[in-house]
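Input for the complex:
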Amino acid sequence: GAVVSQHPSRVICKSGTSVKIECRSLDFQATTMFWYRQFPKQSLMLMATSNEGSKATYEQGVEKDKFLINHASLTLSTLTVTSAHPEDSSFYICSAERGGSTDTQYFGPGTRLTVL
Amino acid sequence: GEDVEQSLFLSVREGDSSVINCTYTDSSSTYLYWYKQEPGAGLQLLTYIFSNMDMKQDQRLTVLLNKKDKHLSLRIADTQTGDSAIYFCAERDSGNTPLVFGKGTRLSVIA
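Predicted:
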């Protein structure tokens, strides 16, 4: 149990376009989802925390108008990178948890975004 | 702010034990985790330990927690080439809060 999927796994787009990444919890309902960004050979950087039905909480330095997060249901959160630029190229990973004080975060397989 | 530190590299011979160490600064850390990341993949939860535990063993994995020194370790017995990956230590205060990650330890297993 506790499987999280991401779609697409890899995307290449032109500068200026918008890209949507989906994160789904397949076998559980996720009250909270997190979006991370990982640069090559570096750790994960938390971008935002997303709770179902409410606005996402963004970390300092993350532009909320550029990285739009929607958590419309208990099994789906989306991250849209708007007007993508080459510096947005990165590995984006989501995680989800059921909720409760003892639960753990389960991570998706990641989405590699390359902006040309 | 909260900080999690790990050594960046570890190299061991196949069949030996690997010990990956982690230190953290947040005294209110309640949950501590070890994740494994293979190249180009997401994070796989290996194991976790609550702060009121000293040790947890799960097959080849043993986690030791020294809460006084804020030191966490992951021991992999009989290390195999398939264990080569990056191992991330992470901590959090409570449920539904973000994890704070270390920079990851790259484990290389030499056949």
